Structures are given as structure tokens and as C-alpha cells.
Amino acid sequence: MRLRLRLVCSALLCWVCVSSFAQTSTLSPGLEILLRKAGWVQIGLQKSTGAVAIQVKSGAVCMGPSGKVYDGPGGTFRATADRKGINLTSPDGRLIQGEWFVVEPRADGSVATWETSGNGYRGRAQLVHNGSGMRVINQIRIDDYLKGVLPAEIGSSPMEALKAQAVAARSETIFKLAANRHKADGFDLCTGEHCQAYKGVKLEEQPSNEAVDATAGYVLTNASGAILDAVYSNVCGGITAGAEDVWDSEPIPGLRPVFDSPGKAAGAVDVSSEAAFRRFLDDSSRDFFCDSKNAGYPKYAMKYFRWKKTVSGEQLAKVAGFSRVRDVAVAERRPSGKVWVLRITGDGGVKDLKKELPIRRALDLWSGLFYVDVTRNPDGTVANATFTGGGNGHGVGLCQMGARTMAARGMGFDRILNHYYPDARVVRVYRP
């Protein structure tokens, strides 16, 4: 892939290509890394293992430390690893040894793919020696990678929602290149929620592929031109969160809270008081984009918009490490309504559960957007705590179910993105 990048900076708008990388110091860090990689990213697949089979249906080329080691018909490359390196058997039966190998399938009139462990992938298969085993890495062009991300992250959706998801996922991918989370692992991104869900070609769908192609090169940037970490979640519950409401983060322009409804009110969102939050969550008359009553809402997500979960006093005591629990209450709530501190009081003192994700995990809740009501035993201890909540996930940025509704109502992907990422801009930074 030869990327042509459009630089967006305060005083200059110009075009550069891969050969002029030395001139690109003003680029956002993630975009600079993508340019250096000529549009390719590396996705860590199988963990270190002692045996791997790479199947290629079309013709294939295999490179190793000594250069080209195979160029011929498709077939199966079988590899084992020991402490000395990788032992690769090519489709024609030859044994080749080395520290790494890259298998690239040739196109045979269709998309060139390869397969391992029952999953198919675009791009190249890289085997890297790793101690006594090896790591399987998928080297893939960024937009081909996104074609395996969209179906895993948002599923079948209206086209404009798919386009919005593609732009958000592309932005997050490029941003994470600079974060270099998996430097020690030898690749750029993993296949799970830590980065973005990625399933290769087996889940690809034509509409989502078209959405990726239609938005090629488009990302979200802040006012200074830096690419936004355009995170997203499944169901926001009627209000999105700021990054600072969920993580140890300073406020990030473009990731501030908004009500997930038409004609969102101007000014800051603030439902941090208990009374204001309960009014918001219990308001059944308001038109929320991610409300499960909206037409076309997928069945699997209907349980998330509003939910209840009851936790026994015994369970709470176990979580807090107490013999008995005297009370459980929200001690601090962020302006978006997200619970920041949940306080459990017991015979052993006070236990504060802090931050959205640890609270969710401790109590197995779908989101940190909830209030809690307590029923008591005759002795005043907690019998049960009922959590009434909304949403599924962290709730920052794009709300996937809300985006579906906006698209179904005829709104374009740029309007959807402007709704969920206020103060951000949709910019095209490269052309494939």
C-alpha cells in the first residue's frame, strides 16, 4: 500500500508520500508511525506455541532471514519451534530453518487469504521465534484490518452507522500505534477488547467492507490536528461519559459527555447529584437514540438500555471482606452519572470501590451508570442491594446502538460522529 497523506497543521496544507517521510515531523504520532509502516499494521494472533500450520489456497511466497525460501503453488506450511529456532516445512516438502518467516499469499482473482487454527486472514502470516515457541502475527493493511474489526465490534447495522464505526475504529487504531501497548510482544495490536476485537475474514460482511472502503483515510482529530483516541461502546444508556469520568485521565476534547438524544442541550452535562441522576435514569418519556424501544434494535442488546441486578448482603460482604454489611451507597458520581466511588460499610470499617471498570467487575454489572437501593434485615444489616442501571460498557465516545438509530433516521456518518465526539473534526488524512 502506498499511502498519500494530507498533513493538517496550523499553517500548512500539503501532500506527501512515503518517500518523503523526512518531511513529516508535524504529523500526529500515530499517523507518523502508520506512514513509516507504509500503511501496514501487525496484529498478534496465536500466543507462543510449539506447532503451527499456515494454509494458503492460492500461490504463495515465503521469505526468511536468508531471503526468498519458497515461491510456488499454495498448500500448507508446517512449522515447529525449539530453542534453536523455527523449523518450517514448505508445501513442496523442504525443511527450512530460521528465526522468522513471512508467508504472503498471491491473489488468484479473489481476495488473497491464509488460514491458521480455523480462522482466515488477509495480508501476510509472520512466524517469529519466541524462546522455545513462536508467535503468529498478521501483517495487514490498516483498512483490511478494519474489515475484520467492524463485524466483531458493531455487527450488521445501517450503512451510515457502519461508516461512523469505521472512522472511529480507524482513529483508535492509529492513536494506539503511538501508544505502543504491545511493544514487548513484538506487534502493534492484539485481537481483544484491550485493543479492538478482530476476527479476520470469517465474520466479514459486504456492507461493513463497503463502509471501510467508503471512508478510507477518514479519522477524527482534535482542534490541533492530533488524531483522537475515538473509543466507543455498545450502549451508553442515554448519556455518554467523558474520559475523566471513567479512567485516570484529564478531560479530552472530543470525549465530553452528551445526552444521547435529539437536540442535545447546550452547555455542560451534569447529573452528578443523586436526585438529578435518578430523574434522568427513570425518565421514560425522553427520546434516547440508544433506547431499546427504537425500531430495528437488535435483540441481543435489548437487555442493556435499562437493567436491574440484585446482589445479596452476603455477596457484598465477600466483595468487601467484611462479615456483615451495614450499608452500600454511591459516595461519588461524575457529571455524566458514572459512579466513581461505591462505598460499602461493614463491621470491619469502610471499603471504597473506585473507578468504573473495577466497580463493574467486582459486582458483575453491565455499566457504571446506576443507582442503588437497599433492603435490610431486622438487625439493620443489608439483606439485598438492587442496582438499577443503564447501558453496557464504559459509555465514552460513539454509542453503537445510538448510532444505529441515528442512521436509521436518515442521519449521515459525519453527523453521527459530530454528535458523539463534540469538538472533534472528521478529516481525511490519507488516500490508499
The computed structural class is: alpha+beta
Give me the Rg, rounded: 25 Å
**What is the helix content?**
10-25%
Number of strands: 25
Mean pLDDT value: 91
Main sheet: strand order = 3-14-13-10-5-6
Sheet of most strands: 6 strands, antiparallel
Strand content: 25-35%
Question: What structural keywords apply?
Answer:
10 helices; 432 residues; 32% strand; 6-stranded antiparallel sheet; globular; alpha+beta; 22% helix; 25 strands
What is the gist of this entry?
22% of the residues lie in helices and 32% in strands.
Descriptive account of the structure:
- With 432 residues, the chain is α+β, with helices and mostly antiparallel strands.
- Among the domains are: 49-130, no CATH class; 234-394, no CATH class.
- Helix content is 22%, strand content 32%.
- It contains 10 helices and 25 strands.
- The strands form 7 sheets. Strands 3-14-13-10-5-6 form a 6-stranded antiparallel sheet. It has a 6-stranded antiparallel sheet with strand order 9-8-7-4-11-12.
- α2 packs across α4 and α3 packs across α4.
- The longest helix has 21 residues, at 159-179.
- It is globular and about 80 Å long.
